[in-house]
Amino acid sequence: MRRTNAVDRRPIAARGWPAARWVSSRLNGHGVLPNTISIAGMVCGIGAGVALAATGPAPRGNQLAWLIAGALILLRAAANMLDGMVAVEFDRASPLGDLYNELPDRISDMAMLIGLGYAAGGNVTLGYAAAGAALLVAYIRTLGKAAGARHEFGGPMAKQRRMFTVVGLSAYMGLSPHAWQPLWGSPPRIGLAAACLGVVIVGCVWTGILRLRRIAASLRAAAGG
């Protein structure tokens, strides 16, 4: 990850946690590069997608696979935070940091949401639609930055919220009795995974609209009205 000024970083409250500072310090002390952390996060994201898809053969899914998916998404979220902390706070930025910061996130998002489409109770079309919506949200942010606005990270279904929405579903599916996991319609039946994808899609559309409005307002203000 490249060096980024504080105003243009994604706001993450957990950066201030003593545990996060300790881990980032240890990673820096062992010479772990921010780009390596970014790649590790992508591996976790891909693994989460595979684990989600692995729940598909059973009507309500393999509960262990759900829990593995949730754990891997949390590890991806931690990597997304730690790569920036090591890069910025320990001045370990790389000229290729933007590439390592953005591309692994996009791959991870696609793997997670498409995997959820193939999960038990999921819907493949909704999975691909959610992945496309997530890509669009990220594209709007980078487009705004290229146009001269600052990075716009806000919105109800930004990256962290997408991850934690799927983590919440994975925890519920992995820990709750099958009787508490509804299925609807005729085979192939859909369930909470499809509902979660629907929430992600609607949230991403709304997030995209909000970001476009904020970016437009910022550019107008910079141009003097």
Q: Any low-confidence stretches, pLDDT <50, length ≥5? A: 1-7
CATH architecture: Up-down Bundle
Largest sheet: 2 strands, antiparallel
Output the CATH homologous superfamily: CDP-alcohol phosphotransferase transmembrane (TM) domain
Overall spatial form = globular
The ordered string of helix (H) and strand (E) elements is HHHHHHEEH
CATH class: Mainly Alpha
Count helical runs. 7
Work out the strand percent.
under 5%
The structural class is mainly alpha
Could you give the distance between the termini? Answer: 34 Å
Task: Summarize model confidence as the mean pLDDT.
Answer: 90
Give the strand order, joined by hyphens, for the main sheet: 1-2
The CATH topology corresponds to: Four Helix Bundle (Hemerythrin (Met), subunit A)
Helix content class: 55-70%
Give the number of DSSP strands.
2
C-alpha-based Rg, rounded: 18 Å
In total, the number of domains comes to: 1
What does this structure look like?
This protein is mainly alpha-helical. It has one domain (12-222): Up-down Bundle (Four Helix Bundle (Hemerythrin (Met), subunit A)). It is 68% helix and 2% strand. A hairpin with a 5-residue loop joins strand 1 (183-184) and strand 2 (190-191). Helix 2 (34-54) packs antiparallel against helix 3 (63-89). The longest helix has 31 residues, at 192-222. The radius of gyration is 18 Å and the shape is globular. Residues 1-7 have low confidence and may be disordered.
